[in-house]
Amino acid sequence: MRTLVGVLSLFFLLTAAPASLAEDAVSDDGSVVTINLTGNDALQYNVTEIKVAAGRKIKLTLTHIGKGTKEMMGHNFVLLKSGIDVVQFGLAAVSARDTGFIPEAKKDDVLAHTTVVGGGESVTIEFDAPAAGTYEYLCSFTGHFGTMRGKLVVE
Ligand SMILES: [Cu+2]
């Protein structure tokens, strides 16, 4: 019986952890929304849906919590304008290494973006929340958009 309780509490601990981490990742003080986004060596962001109230300033920090180098396993955060296709952007970004994986021809599709970081590094950007709507974000490093993407919902 004791073992069963132990197993169950471990189970709850494991299943509860990601959700609480995701909640901790976003905080709103009434004027500024602080977002602590992470990327790891398994091509994952910690949060794939972020809800923000309209009119806020957004302070976003992207931290690479893995060990991969910027050259091999770099991560960034690219927020696209509403209606821009993540896959098309991601494919175009493959050949845009020299410009931080922001393709010159598609830079008008971007609302905000960070530079590329490697393992252990972080970068912070600030921008105004766009108008109410849903906006997609991705890591535009070669091939990462398959798993490293999410939605910013402004309400
Ligand atoms: Cu990445």
Care to describe what's here?
- The chain has three helices and nine strands.
- The chain is of the alpha+beta class and 155 residues long.
- The chain has one domain (26-154): Cupredoxins -  blue copper proteins (Immunoglobulin-like, Sandwich).
- It is globular and about 40 Å long.
- Bound molecules: copper (II) ion.
- Copper (II) ion is lined by residues 39, 75, 139, 141, 144, 148.
Summarize the SSE layout with pairings.
Layout: H1 2-24, E1 26-28, E2 32-39, E3 49-52, E4 57-64, H2 70-73, E5 78-80, H3 86-93, E6 110-113, E7 122-128, E8 133-138, E9 149-154
Residues 39, 75, 139, 141, 144, 148 line the site of copper (II) ion.
CATH top level class name: Mainly Beta
Total strand segments: 9
Radius of gyration: 17 Å
Category from helices, strands and their pairing: alpha+beta
- Read across the widest sheet, the strand sequence of neighbours is 3-9-8-5-6
Q: Keyphrases for this structure?
A:
155 residues; binds copper (II) ion; 32% strand; 3 helices; alpha+beta
Structure summarized in a few sentences:
With 155 residues, the chain is of the alpha+beta class. 23% of the residues lie in helices and 32% in strands. Residues 39, 75, 139, 141, 144, 148 line the site of copper (II) ion.
